[in-house]
Amino acid sequence: GERFGNKDCQMDNKPKLEGVGGGDSGTGPKCPRCGKTVYDAERAIGVNTPWHKSCFNCKGCKKSLDSTTMAMHEEEVFCKNCYGKNFGPSGYGFGQGAGTLSMG
User: Fold this and answer.
1) Which of 40, 39, 47, 100 is nearest to 75 (CA)?
2) How far apart are CA 51 and CA 32, in angstroms?
3) How far apart are CA 37 and CA 39, in angstroms?
4) How far is Cα 41 from Cα 98, in angstroms, rounded to an integer?
5) Which residue(s) pair with 37 in the sheet?
6) pTM summary value
7) E-assigned strand segments in the chain
């Protein structure tokens, strides 16, 4: 195959696919967990940051969350139980359940 006058520089006007990651070409807000565009129909309700409903689960135990059962730490969401285990207060009297402190 010979070329018939087509030079590479004449083909430089093709659209380039720069800035497209993971095959996601949407321009809306990105989900913090998967990095893909979050469309209104798949957005988790009740949180300020847009998340996919399927991604909005506890990073520790994978339990589904909503705005009343979630706790956020460094752009990740956790259930309150896992959050308390991983990032809650520690030391004497913490994490042993209700009624473990004696007032004597």
Assistant:
1) 47
2) 7
3) 6
4) 41
5) 30
6) 0.60
7) 70-73, 76-79
pLDDT at 36: 96
Cα–Cα distance measured from residue 55 to residue 29, given in angstroms and rounded to the nearest whole number:
14
| Residues 78/71, Cβ–Cβ less than 8 Å | yes
- Stretches where the chain sits below pLDDT 70 are 1-25, 90-104
Pairing of strands 76-79, 70-73: antiparallel
Residues 6+ apart with CB under 8 A from 84: 71, 95
Residue that has been written with the tokens 């010979």 in this structure: 2
Question: What letter would DSSP give residue 40?
Answer: G
Residue 85: how many other CB atoms lie within 10 Å: 14
Q: How far is CA 46 from the centre of its chain?
A: 15
Taking residue 51's Cβ as centre, other Cβ atoms within 10 Å add up to: 24
